[in-house]
């Protein structure tokens, strides 16, 4: 009798595995990863297997930390504002990420926003399913993994999101479990975003209103991510390695942790700072600053604990189909010179977003096709 080797058995299993069928069955439940756990799953399904060693290139240098910047009194104390601008300039050039404290969003509002997203994902699946959609024209988007068919593996995460500016949904169109709080939180996030764009403008040596006048703060898209407890976190990721397409992202995360950024070829943890918010540079801001500020790779680990909940506020005008998608951007002229020529061609938000969605989470930087 022929004895098959382990490799032969694995090859036979690979040949009989139908990824498309597994994805289709999962997606048709419309209840996400949370639905898998509710159904009693004890092992991570094959479609989620990343094949990535998450311990590889993981930094252990505790001295390397994403900068924390205090925004206390920056509106009425010129010296403190100058100090904050200097720190932000350094953070945007060297890290692409920083955290802010004393940012003006009250703690109860932040806590309520996290709780609202948790309530949405933990309500009855039949209620969640009513909002299931990946269509960007939908008022509310609820899904697990935006691009299941293109991504190499699925992430252990569910998402609900909506555009809150310039044309927010009507109150009755928002899910009841977070409608009031996302309306309040988005106003606070928009105000903070405007402040950060002022500081970024000054860090570039431009007038404070420069980036706002480029409509960088015009659009706000908020996503509430839910990372259920994972039975085998070493096999998958909460979010794959990627960069954000926005101008900037402001991230509110609970205290569970798991966010990592790729800094000097090392994966470093971005631990939650008490009362803090994470800010990171997006692809479009890297393009218009001509690589002055960098949009860096980041990911989220899956974990046994949890669930982990985070709220990402993306500043971009891309979700306004009449105005945002056709808006053309190129490197800011004031930043260019013979010594610093343009690194990118002019391109529209729509073209950048189309490329982002077409390529999926493939691990490549989204700005590659737009370089000169």
From TrEMBL:
Cofactor: Fe cation
InterPro entries referenced in this protein's UniProt entry, alphabetically: DIOX_N, IPNS-like_FE2OG_OXY, IPNS-like_sf, Oxoglu/Fe-dep_dioxygenase_dom
One Pfam family this sequence matches: DIOX_N
Gene3D superfamilies in alphabetical order: B-lactam Antibiotic, Isopenicillin N Synthase, Chain (2.60.120.330)
Coiled coil (residue ranges): none
Protein's UniProt keywords contain Acetylation: no
Keyword set, alphabetical order: Iron, Metal-binding, Oxidoreductase
Domain Fe2OG dioxygenase: 216-318
PROSITE patterns xref list: FE2OG_OXY
Keyword Iron: yes
Highest rank taxon of the organism: Eukaryota
Molecular function terms from GO: dioxygenase activity; metal ion binding
Family stated for the protein in its record: Belongs to the iron/ascorbate-dependent oxidoreductase family.
PANTHER family named among the record's database cross-references: OXIDASE, PUTATIVE-RELATED, OXIDOREDUCTASE, 2OG-FE II OXYGENASE FAMILY PROTEIN
Protein name stated in the entry: Fe2OG dioxygenase domain-containing protein
Record organism: Phaseolus vulgaris
Taxonomic classification: Eukaryota, Viridiplantae, Streptophyta, Embryophyta, Tracheophyta
């Amino acid at each position: 009798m022929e004895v098959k080797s382990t490799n032969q058995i694995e090859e036979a299993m690979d040949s009989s595995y139908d990824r498309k069928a597994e994805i289709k069955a999962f997606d048709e439940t419309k209840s996400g990863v949370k639905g898998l756990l509710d159904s009693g799953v004890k092992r991570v399904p094959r479609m989620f297997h990343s094949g990535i060693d998450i311990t590889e290139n993981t930094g252990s240098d505790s001295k390397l930390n994403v900068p924390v910047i205090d925004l206390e009194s920056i509106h009425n104390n010129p010296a403190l504002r100058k100090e904050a601008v200097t720190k932000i300039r350094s953070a945007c050039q060297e890290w692409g990420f920083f955290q802010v404290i004393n940012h003006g969003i009250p703690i109860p509002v932040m806590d309520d926003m996290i709780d609202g997203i948790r309530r949405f994902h933990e309500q009855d699946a039949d209620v969640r399913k009513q909002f299931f959609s990946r269509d960007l024209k939908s008022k509310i988007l609820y899904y697990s993994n935006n691009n299941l068919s293109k991504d190499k593996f699925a992430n252990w995460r569910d998402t609900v999101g909506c555009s809150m500016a310039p044309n927010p949904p009507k109150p009755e169109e928002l899910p009841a479990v977070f409608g009031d709080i996302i309306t309040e939180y988005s106003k606070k996030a928009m105000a903070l975003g405007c402040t950060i764009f002022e500081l970024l403008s000054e860090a570039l040596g431009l007038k404070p209103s420069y980036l706002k006048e480029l409509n960088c703060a015009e659009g706000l898209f908020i996503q509430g991510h839910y990372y259920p407890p994972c039975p085998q976190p070493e096999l998958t990721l909460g979010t794959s390695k990627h960069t954000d397409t926005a101008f900037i992202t402001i991230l509110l995360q609970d205290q569970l942790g798991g966010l990592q950024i790729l800094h000097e070829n090392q994966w470093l943890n971005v631990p939650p700072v008490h009362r803090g918010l994470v800010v990171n540079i997006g692809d479009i801001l890297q393009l218009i600053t001509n690589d002055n500020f960098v949009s860096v790779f980041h990911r989220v680990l899956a974990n046994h604990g949890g669930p982990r909940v985070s709220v990402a506020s993306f500043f971009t005008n891309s979700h306004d189909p009449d105005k945002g998608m056709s808006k053309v951007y190129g490197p800011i002229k004031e930043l260019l010179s013979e010594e610093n020529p343009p690194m990118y061609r002019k391109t529209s938000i729509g073209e950048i977003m189309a490329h982002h969605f077409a390529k999926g989470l493939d691990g490549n930087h989204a700005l590659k096709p737009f370089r000169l």
